């Protein structure tokens, strides 16, 4: 093998690549890690939004009673049930409505464990934390059920006189359970309506019930544009990670974030113009046509209306 002569070009590294990087000051690496983790968590949250939306569309395509019913009938039935839950003033009607929600979830072929965990236990837990002070004798004096704390006859907190004991009262517990059960029922009904009805079917039903065409078009474009914008943000973050190794701390990082927000605004504005031009090129004249994926079943719509009337009648009887 011939050795390279003096006239042959020699491949050398550029001077800047051989320089050692400057050591980071105290706290710089931690701040950089936290900043990148924050952006990553934001993107993960955006992906979770997309995943849930796609999961809802998958449920809406199942062959269940709620999925086969007409969207107009579903909207009217669920609005009536939500109104009944809001106007109920007793535990028995609310328990009946929540039991009906579980029955409708089973008829819609939903995973009952996931449905109850997301709409029932979670709502009951967080609502319970909020209404817990209202269950005590400080807010609802009445018949004590469980004594929580005994302060004594002359207990004071600064200028305020404390009661001799702090307890859960029957009146407060009844009111707190009503609030929790009403919240769980309302959230369950809204969840059932949204996950068993595709977005465009829902807008088509609202349009048939009198929603203005301009509002329906705005909702449709917004729904679709959210996913496009999330994809653009993810691409920008991936390009940033590929070109800026390790991120930028301090003022440089803030300037980079401001520049990225400005670039995102310009890209979204340009994309909106392109979408409008594409709509005009395809004959758009101000009216949106909602595509119906499957024909509605008269039997399913009638069955849902019958179940709704039975639930409303039961609420009226046990009130």
Plain-language structure description:
The chain is mainly alpha-helical. Helix content is 67%, strand content 5%. It contains eleven helices and four strands. It has helices at residues 15-18, 28-60, 65-68, 71-87, 91-107, 112-131, 170-195, 199-208, 213-243, 251-281, 298-318; strands spanning 144-150, 156-157, 160-161, 165-169. The strands form two sheets. The protein has a two-stranded antiparallel ribbon. Strands 2-3 form a two-stranded antiparallel sheet. Helix 5 runs antiparallel to helix 11. The protein starts with 14 loop residues before the first helix and ends with a helix. Residues 21-36 have low confidence and may be disordered.
What's the short story on this structure?
The protein has 319 residues and is mostly helical. The chain contains 11 helices and 4 strands. β2 (156-157) and β3 form a beta hairpin.
Write out key terms for the chains shown.
single chain; 319 residues; mainly alpha; two-stranded antiparallel sheet; 11 helices; 4 strands
Which class of secondary structure composition applies to the elements? mainly alpha
Rounded to the nearest angstrom, the radius of gyration is 30 Å
Low-confidence stretches: 21-36
How many beta-strand segments? 4
What's the order of the H and E elements?
A: HHHHHHEEEEHHHHH
- What topology, given as strand order, has the largest sheet? 1-4
Tell me the helix content. Answer: 55-70%
Quote the distance from N terminus to C terminus: 99 Å
Shape: flat
The proportion of residues in beta strands is 5-15%
Number of helices: 11
Profile the largest sheet.
2 strands, antiparallel
Average of per-residue pLDDT values: 76
